[in-house]
Specification:
mainly alpha; two-stranded antiparallel sheet; 15 helices; 2 strands
Length: 390
């Protein structure tokens, strides 16, 4: 019965991710249209407008853009954290045999793209963006593989979802370790105290979500002011939410169920609307063949495909894992291509990587191009495999 609950949650996540991916695409197009219209300056001014309040001892006044990237994205990372915890405890990542292929594939899909980017950008101002091509956008990748329907085995969809979740965990660790500039130890210790309190609640089997979510708001505030990116608070909170493997819906499953639709239908589209407002300029084309652009495009499209395919092959040859049921090596290559859709997470890391607005814009444009290329190529390639094997 517990398995049925988990499967239903996965189906809802997958279905909402599919529709959410389409909605994301619409928001990207709308954002690009606004950025290249007479409303571009007004829209940028709106995103820069401050919202909140500030006193001598409390400061929660940020720009609308910051609220989206630091606040709403913390909720996104809360959902990702819940998915990771559930998968680790009772899902596709719950034991070594199940987890080894998607985890090792995700590892290859992070290492190879980062290395490719570094080779293009070493000794340049843009070398700090090496984390950009490491990420996979769950919503877009799952939306595209869902559109393939029966052209791919169901196990391949689960493999991609598990790989993307493991990939997100890697991206979270990269953000926490490498994209933190300065630590404010007082706020960090306060955040640590709240996290310890939440762990105690879990230990004493407190079930009501209210007792986790309210301290979670304070956890977000102190993590934000500690210098570590505020979105990490979402993951820390997720890991304290209780779960179980019984037929009774756990607090974790209840919260995940509540967040899946708003995250995929509201938060991610808002993020896309706010962060893909790229005003096209002639210089952007040159940016695609700069070390920054080449590092991102080659890293996402080529690096993801090679890294995922090679590490998967290595895992199977070393008898650490098995291919998904009904899948072959061509399917794995196709998944590697789809994993090159970095979009949301890649843009997010780009925002953390560069202070120079020009680098941010060039990175966004390169990510957009690479993601479109990876999505189209992956879709056509996986569909053609089915056609040839009929």
């Amino acid at each position: 019965m517990a398995k049925k609950i988990n499967l239903n949650i996965f189906k809802e996540f997958f279905q909402s991710g599919k529709v959410g991916g389409i909605l994301l695409l619409v928001c990207v197009i709308v954002s690009l249209c606004i950025a290249n219209s007479s409303q571009a300056i007004s829209f940028a001014g709106f995103l820069a407008r401050d919202f909140g309040f500030q006193t001598d001892s409390l400061s929660i006044s940020y720009s609308i853009s910051a609220w989206i990237n630091d606040g709403l994205m913390a909720i996104f990372f809360l959902l990702v954290g819940l998915e990771i915890k559930r998968e680790l405890l009772e899902g596709e990542l719950s034991n070594v045999k199940k987890a080894s292929l998607p985890v090792l594939a995700a590892l290859g899909g992070m290492i190879v793209p980062a290395l490719i980017y570094f080779l293009f950008n070493q000794s340049t101002e843009t070398v700090s963006g090496w984390g950009i091509p490491m990420a996979t956008d769950i919503a877009f990748a799952l939306a595209i593989i869902a559109m393939l329907g029966k052209n791919v085995p169901p196990s391949l969809k689960i493999f991609l979802a598990a790989l993307a979740i493991a990939d997100d965990l890697g991206a979270i660790l990269v953000i926490a370790v490498f994209y933190t500039e300065q630590i404010h130890w007082t706020e960090l210790l306060l955040a640590g105290g709240i996290f310890a309190f939440l762990l105690l609640l879990n230990y004493f089997k407190v079930k009501r979500l209210f007792f986790y979510l309210v301290p979670g708001v304070f956890l977000w505030y102190f993590v934000h002011h500690s210098g570590i990116h505020a979105t990490i608070a979402g993951v820390l909170l997720a890991f304290t939410i209780p779960t179980n493997n019984t037929a009774v819906e756990s607090p974790l499953e209840k919260l995940e169920h509540s967040l899946t639709i708003p995250v995929n239908y509201l938060i991610m589209p808002i993020f896309a609307l706010a962060n893909t407002n790229i005003t096209f300029q002639k210089e952007m084309i040159d940016g695609l063949v700069s070390p920054l652009g080449l590092g991102i495009i080659t890293g996402l499209f080529v690096g993801k495909t090679i890294g995922i395919s090679f590490f998967s092959w290595l895992a199977v040859k070393m008898k650490l894992a098995k291919l998904p049921s009904g899948a072959n090596w061509k399917h794995i290559v196709g998944v590697g291509m789809l994993a090159g859709i970095g979009f949301t997470m890649s843009i997010f890391i780009a925002l953390l990587s560069f202070k120079n607005p020009l680098f941010v814009v060039e990175a966004k444009f390169s990510i957009l191009c690479a993601s479109v290329l990876a999505g189209i190529a992956g879709f056509i390639y996986l569909k053609s495999i089915r056609t040839r094997t009929k």
